[in-house]
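Quick start: read one record
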Amino acid sequence: MKGPNRERGPDLESSHGEEAMHATHSHAAPPAARATDLPEVGAARPVLELLVDFDAAPATHAVPVLAYGSVVEAAPLRVAVDGRARGAKRAKSCLVAPEPGDRVLCSLDGATAYVLAVLDGAADTRVVADGKLEVRADELALAGRRVGVEGAEVAIHAGALRMHAQSAVAALEELRLLGRSLEANVADKVVLFAERVEARASRLLTRAKHAFRFVEGLEQVRAGHYDLRAEGLAALRGENTILAARVLAKLDGEQVKIG
């Protein structure tokens, strides 16, 4: 029994050695992939075409470049950059209108040029916007030695309007004032010059310490009832005086003198 076992010993040892080596290789890192193991480009392209358009032309957009320039012409706008004059557009954020000779900052993108800002120029400045310009703020103040507003129509909408001035002059072809009530307080005097004055009211009340009226021509009063009273003297004088009544004429007093 010992003889045969001793003869098969080397075979058993080699068998156990191969099993051990196989177990060791099974836990080791997999071998690096070879070039022949990679998929071919032609096989991978159908998958990439779902993500990339191979037939599209390459992008040709130029990167904008900033450059200094000078305004050659205002309308149409032309600027000179590096000694070359070209047409340009005013950027929407540039509200200052460029004038000939102004130094400007430009954005160049191929054949397109934009004026981003006016850096230096004449002392006078014009703010110009294409279309509607709306300014909103919690508080807005305009200050200047002289402020002018010009337009075909100027509208002011406010909950309260206050004006303070030492003097005011208004030259109007036609004036219409509409309101529920009007109150005017004048400390010194009111002077009115007009070719014709008309007043219409349901009730007209005038109070004064002294009242004077000078009429060169005719003064006519027509009333349903006319009551003239004087606490002191009531005098009616004229070169020719006519007192006429259609029904009754009455003179009453403690003394009546005629002539």
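DSSP finds three helices and six strands in the chain.
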